[in-house]
């Protein structure tokens, strides 16, 4: 019988890779909580309209990458390709638009049918944060600072650059959009197939194209700076000043537009050169109209998302396994005491394991393979005296300890 392989673009998280993955999530949860964010857990699939309405039909996600299916009731459902739309839907359906602002953190698997590459999979995991219901540029600076803080705590910030751009307000984008259409129409024969489709509907997306033919035209394309309103300029100036006050270094990149159609004003990406051509590890921006697409009121918001797999690849130090204790009985006759000791250690927060079979030597070999730091040895003599032998597997020192003193003894030894 042939071996069943994982589906292309999926992978298993085991051992070191799992520890890296969990470390990224734990750090993100801890840091976002310091900023007042609470975890929201939304369904892994939604009504397809949640994404087709919100992401825009010119985005690659909607046009090429969504996993959609019809359920037995005939409803069109989609495995979530990103987290923001589901958060905005949850804001509306849970009646939270009456108590703004809301600060939501999320983590979980996302699904996109795209070409797998380093750190990018068809099932991947994201952490993300959404600050819903505030329109001040200070909020933009603070949520960017929170992302920077997470990268600092992960120890990867020195390998990452923050790139920042503005898409202006609605009036600015309208004037810029018309200028871009007029410019790119002169070069229609040179545009890629995707950019030709975007030309009338969303020409800003052409600026994000990776096609060499498109990129050759970008240098002379109209710049937003020539079409920005005074209000948009003021927002942009205040954002950059606030980032300086937060002491967050950044570079301006006028070609960042992000992949979704809902962004306005601030857009940003934290990028690295250590993961190949697709170097963005955390990105986001300000958005308008997304909550309205879910049937709610106008709610200005700012948010970001980051790929857990890509951040995990950047970690230089692998999170260590929890220090464990191996409990080893010499015979079946002492199992009652063995299980009593095991559960007592676990109740006191000590990671304890037992080998279910094998002689003493094999059990010790297993303890060493699983990198246990201490071994608790229990024989018939020990059971009668209500003591155990505690062996330090690093130094090989061994001592007899009363069962009543075992927890305190192990905590002292393992704290060193």
From TrEMBL:
<keyword id="KW-0436">Ligase</keyword>
<dbReference type="InterPro" id="IPR033656">
    <property type="entry name" value="HisRS_anticodon"/>
</dbReference>
<dbReference type="GO" id="GO:0004821">
    <property type="term" value="F:histidine-tRNA ligase activity"/>
</dbReference>
<dbReference type="InterPro" id="IPR036621">
    <property type="entry name" value="Anticodon-bd_dom_sf"/>
</dbReference>
<dbReference type="InterPro" id="IPR004154">
    <property type="entry name" value="Anticodon-bd"/>
</dbReference>
<keyword id="KW-0067">ATP-binding</keyword>
<comment type="subunit">
    <text>Homodimer.</text>
</comment>
<dbReference type="InterPro" id="IPR041715">
    <property type="entry name" value="HisRS-like_core"/>
</dbReference>
<keyword id="KW-0030">Aminoacyl-tRNA synthetase</keyword>
<keyword id="KW-0547">Nucleotide-binding</keyword>
<keyword id="KW-0648">Protein biosynthesis</keyword>
<protein>
    <recommendedName>
        <fullName>Histidine--tRNA ligase</fullName>
        <ecNumber>6.1.1.21</ecNumber>
    </recommendedName>
</protein>
<dbReference type="Pfam" id="PF13393">
    <property type="entry name" value="tRNA-synt_His"/>
</dbReference>
<comment type="similarity">
    <text>Belongs to the class-II aminoacyl-tRNA synthetase family.</text>
</comment>
<feature type="domain" description="Aminoacyl-transfer RNA synthetases class-II family profile">
    <location>
        <begin position="8"/>
        <end position="329"/>
    </location>
</feature>
<dbReference type="InterPro" id="IPR015807">
    <property type="entry name" value="His-tRNA-ligase"/>
</dbReference>
<dbReference type="Pfam" id="PF03129">
    <property type="entry name" value="HGTP_anticodon"/>
</dbReference>
<dbReference type="InterPro" id="IPR004516">
    <property type="entry name" value="HisRS/HisZ"/>
</dbReference>
<keyword id="KW-0963">Cytoplasm</keyword>
<dbReference type="InterPro" id="IPR006195">
    <property type="entry name" value="aa-tRNA-synth_II"/>
</dbReference>
<dbReference type="InterPro" id="IPR045864">
    <property type="entry name" value="aa-tRNA-synth_II/BPL/LPL"/>
</dbReference>
